[in-house]
UniProtKB/TrEMBL annotation, chain A:
Name used for this protein in its record: Uncharacterized protein
Transmembrane segments: 48-68
Domain of life per record: Bacteria
NCBIfam families: CU044_5270_fam (NF038083)
Species: Nonomuraea pusilla
Sorted UniProt keywords: Membrane, Transmembrane, Transmembrane helix
TrEMBL record, chain B:
PANTHER family reported for this sequence: RNA POLYMERASE ECF-TYPE SIGMA FACTO, RNA POLYMERASE SIGMA FACTOR HI_1459-RELATED
CDD domains, per the entry: Sigma70_r4
Region: Disordered, residue numbers: 151-196
Start and end residues of each RNA polymerase sigma factor 70 region 4 type domain: 101-151
Species: Nonomuraea pusilla
NCBIfam families linked to this entry: sigma70-ECF
GO terms, molecular function: DNA binding; sigma factor activity
Stated name of the protein: RNA polymerase sigma-70 factor, ECF subfamily
Composition skew (Basic and acidic residues), residue ranges: 161-176, 184-196
GO biological process, one term: DNA-templated transcription initiation
Pfam families: Sigma70_r2 (PF04542), Sigma70_r4_2 (PF08281)
Length: 379, 196
């Protein structure tokens, strides 16, 4: 036998013509097609939102609705396990959503930044629970403060404090008072852990923890675990940022193996990036631009976060279904004047599973960002 | 789907594994996915320039991506691990010969191995393979002839009975996240916790 034939016969099985697995395929196609095409002939028509804000505002008066097809700037990554391939029918996109996000992008990119020894964040997380006897709902609140070292080799410090549970609405407060204003509440925790949990209405003591960085250098989760260096060196170009993030997309949810479309996944991950990660102002701006380029982005002005602060909310029109059957939508609330994040929220679209007791439109959980910035002192 | 995305997807389905296999044979599995996704991202961007058949063009792009993005040293290490993995494991009699061929291939200089793989495993004609490595078809034939000779010599020299290599274990990235909702805060879990 000639050596080439022998070599052909000896090809390792994994290098043969086995089909690529579906997740890798979805992720790689989405990654590739997330980028704009290079046309041989330069495109004649620029998308309206490429004109900059003044142009966009001018265009607004002319036409409130623009029609965008999937291969335009930003593009619609097709094929994923969750969403069928995007049809070739054009999507109607309301311009104001993009204009608002682009304005936020400019504000975010203009924020001053002076790095220091630690990235410091203070946030309050809230989750809604149903009280076992009584049927009313309460919100449990957890304050958490974190110091993440700029240099590798250090430790991540945290301080957590339970702030206590409060009735969710005025109606719930009335029900709680009718029940004798109990200070300890047994709540249902549906799902795997069937044991009820006890909440207290009074705050707990703060506890401080410190742990070495995972692998010695990983500080945050951004689709995958990333180092401070990764975060500081993220691309400040929206297309490149999107491509960078989508490399970690595996066709499924950020929380489980549930299928999730790449746009939804990207939205979830970028909301985390915008809300409390130590990225440069330019990258935060790029993340807003990237959101502006997604199809089906919904922007709502004058919403109030759980701290009572007023802001603008951005969400994907397309909600997602989670384990157990609920349909949810996550949204980011930001301050339009600074492009800073105020809160992230998960809103119930269709009750079910863990969110069976909630009404459509109810906020199931939220995290409000009270502080985020650099500091040299660890309080 | 638009015509472009349809064409691109068909091209991807037809060629993806071939490109992957080529990159694996050049730089190991660790970096292959990254290089492949970059290659197809370039192919999408430059779809107007992609000839038919696309495979030789794609392999050429992958070759450039590999050269531009993966450090030579990292590539060598990853490839060494890959080549070891081809020739490890329980060697039954019927596969001993195959192992011998692969060992011989692993022992060759990088350039020889690339040429042989393009022809034997990717099924490229010398003309197409020449395009991938960026030389003339004539020069390629000469190089192929020499590479084939060296492979034959190495096959004769390499008889079964070499030491077995230990299994390479690649680290899994730690991954956090209890299914408790859309936790927007970053999550980091220790590897030990993930796997306990």
């Amino acid at each position: 036998m000639n050596p080439i034939d022998e070599l052909r016969a000896a090809r390792p099985a994994h290098l043969g013509d086995t089909p690529v697995d579906e997740r890798t395929r979805a992720a790689e196609l989405a990654y590739a097609m997330a980028r704009p095409r290079e046309r041989r002939r330069r495109a004649v028509a620029r998308p309206v939102w490429g004109l900059g804000l003044a142009g966009a505002a001018a265009a607004l008066t002319a036409a409130a609705v623009v029609v965008v097809n999937g291969t335009g700037g930003g593009g619609a990554p097709p094929t994923s396990a969750a969403a069928p391939p995007a049809s070739s029918a054009p999507h109607k996109v309301r311009l104001p959503a993009r204009a608002i996000l682009l304005a936020a992008a400019e504000k975010a990119a203009d924020q001053p930044e002076a790095t220091a020894a630690y990235w410091h964040t203070v946030s309050v997380s809230r989750s809604v629970y149903t009280v076992e006897d009584g049927g009313y709902q309460v919100v449990d609140r957890q304050r958490s403060e974190m110091w993440t070292p700029r240099a590798i080799g250090g430790e991540q410090w945290g301080r957590d404090q339970n702030l206590g549970a409060v009735p969710a609405t005025d109606e719930d407060r009335a029900a709680w008072e009718r029940a004798g204003s109990p200070s300890r509440l047994t709540v249902q925790v549906p799902g795997k852990k069937l044991e009820p949990m006890t909440l207290s209405t009074s705050p707990g003591k703060p506890s401080t923890r410190h742990t070495p960085l995972v692998d010695g250098d990983k500080v945050f989760w951004l689709g995958r675990n990333v180092t401070m260096k990764d975060l500081r060196e993220l691309p400040s170009d929206p297309d490149r940022l999107k491509a960078w993030l989508l490399r970690s997309y595996g066709g499924h949810s950020t929380e489980s193996d549930e299928p999730m479309s790449s746009d939804t996944w990207l939205f979830q991950v970028s909301v985390g990036l915008i809300s409390d990660m130590p990225v440069t102002p330019e990258v935060r701006g790029a993340a807003f631009r990237m959101l502006a380029a997604l199809d089906g982005v919904d922007v709502t002005e004058d919403v109030t976060d759980a701290e009572g602060r007023s802001g603008t909310a951005v969400a994907l029109k397309e909600p997602f279904r989670v384990n157990g059957g609920a349909v949810l939508r996550s949204r980011l609330i930001f301050d339009a004047a600074t492009g800073r994040a105020l809160a992230t929220e998960t809103v119930v679209v269709e009750p079910g599973g863990l969110q069976a007791d909630l009404r459509p439109g109810a906020v199931w959980n939220s995290t409000t960002v009270l502080e985020s910035g650099w500091t040299d002192t660890r309080g | 789907m638009t015509d472009d995305s349809h064409r691109f997807t068909s091209m991807y389905d037809e060629c993806r594994q071939r490109v992957w296999a080529y990159v694996v044979s050049r730089a190991g599995r660790q970096v292959a996915d990254e290089v492949v996704s970059e290659t197809f991202a370039i192919a999408w961007r430059r779809l107007d320039d992609v000839p038919s058949p696309a495979l030789p063009w794609l392999l050429g792009v992958a070759r450039n991506v590999l050269r531009d993005t993966i450090r030579a040293e990292a590539r060598r290490d990853a490839l060494a691990a890959e080549l070891r993995s081809w020739t490890e494991g329980d060697v039954a009699d019927e596969v001993a010969e195959r192992m011998g061929v692969l060992r011989a291939l692993a022992s060759l200089p990088d350039d020889d191995r690339e040429i042989l793989v393009l022809v034997a495993w990717q099924g490229l004609s010398p003309r197409d393979a020449a395009r991938v490595v960026g030389c003339s078809a004539t020069a390629f034939r000469v190089r192929l002839h020499r590479a084939r000779k060296r492979l034959k010599q190495a096959m004769q020299a390499a008889e079964p009975g070499q030491e077995r290599h230990g299994q390479e274990r690649h680290g899994q990235e730690p991954r956090g996240g209890e299914p408790q909702g859309q936790e927007s805060r970053p999550r980091v879990r220790n590897l030990s916790e993930e796997w306990s």
